[in-house]
Write a structure and sequence with these properties.
By secondary structure, the chain is an alpha/beta fold. The chain is built from 9 helices and 12 strands. It binds 2'-monophosphoadenosine-5'-diphosphate. The site of 2'-monophosphoadenosine-5'-diphosphate (ATR) has 15 residues, from helix 5. 2'-monophosphoadenosine-5'-diphosphate binds next to helix 5.
Length: 288
């Protein structure tokens, strides 16, 4: 291994299924940059050591992505947070500056909003429903509460209802969450009246996973957005399609958050041709 090669990567556990190396190494090749993007599977007890090493002159890692379960846990190791990461309370991108300061960004939230914009979904006055209250829900809820085109309502259901309370309490300390309403059952989400349903749970990742939603609740005036992109079409999305609903998986969000991360690391706008290549490899590899 050439330890002097400019390196980027993703920390998390597990990370082996991440598509970020494919996306970013494609970008480096297109840009003609001599850099590599690697997987860094890290146990929690190794985090401290990893971040200590990151500050050393001999370390050639200049930027990182952060995934489960460390998006909040990395914050104490950083020197500063960009305003959005501060408000979301989670970091998925780290920039190591020239003077070895570590700055945390959140590109999940704007990545999700960028994908909705691509889908021409205007959030203003919309009724939004969310399944799940884990790490992925956090960035989405904060993003939806922060945008000027304020949605009418955000209803959230989670299997473990106490987790919604904890999550909202935390987000509400930094963001106006007055439009958010936790509910105790899927029926109380009022999906029949909703404009957007977002699945942030891991249900649908594995074959044979049950679906939290009954088909009769879905309709043709709703966008059903599943954060899962592998499989490309979860049972929820299949069912939604059958009812005439608009559907989207999380590949677009993955792509947009990746572009934004790359722009933070490089300090430049990424050209359209490079972006198109990044998108194409993601589409290709998930197209089974
Ligand atoms: P992520 O960071 O991807 O959101 P996570 O923080 O582990 O991952 O959250 C997983 C989400 O999927 C949670 O909302 C979890 O519900 P609980 O809080 O009740 O655990 C949800 N989830 C996972 N398996 C589920 C299942 N079998 N039924 C319902 N919800 C499930």
């Amino acid at each position: 291994m050439d330890s002097h090669q400019t390196t980027y990567g993703i920390i998390g556990y597990p990370v082996k299924h991440s598509l970020s190396p494919l996306m970013h190494n494609t970008a480096f090749a297109e840009l003609g940059v001599d850099a590599t993007y690697k997987l860094f599977p890290l146990k929690e007890e190794d985090l401290k050591n990893f971040f200590e090493n990151l500050r050393k002159e001999s370390n050639f890692i200049f930027g990182l992505n952060v995934t489960v379960p460390y998006k909040e846990k990395v914050i104490p190791y950083l020197d500063s947070l960009a305003p959005l990461a501060q408000r979301v309370g989670a970091v998925n991108t780290i920039v190591r500056t020239k003077d070895r300061k570590l700055v945390g960004y959140n590109t999940d939230a704007p990545g999700f909003l960028a994908h909705l914009a691509e889908l021409k979904f205007n959030l203003k006055d919309k009724r939004i429903t969310i399944l799940g209250a884990g790490g992925s829900a956090r960035a989405l809820i904060a993003a939806l509460c922060l945008i000027p085109e304020r949605p009418q309502s955000i209803r959230i259901y989670n299997r473990t209802s106490s987790k919604i309370g904890d999550l909202l309490k935390d987000i509400a300390s930094r963001v106006d969450t007055s439009i958010v309403e936790p509910v105790m059952s899927v029926d109380d989400l009022n999906i029949e009246l909703a404009d957007l349903l977002i699945n942030t749970t891991s249900l649908g990742l594995k074959e044979g996973d049950p679906c939290l939603i009954d088909e009769h609740l879905l309709h043709s005036n709703i966008l059903v957005y599943d954060l899962i992109y592998n499989p490309r079409e979860t049972p929820l999305l299949k069912m939604a399609k059958a009812t005439g609903a608009q559907t989207a998986n999380g590949l677009g969000m993955l792509y947009y958050q990746g572009i934004l991360s790359l722009q933070h690391w490089a300090g430049i706008q990424v050209q359209e041709e490079v972006k198109n290549k990044m998108r194409a490899v993601l589409e290709e590899v998930t197209n089974d």
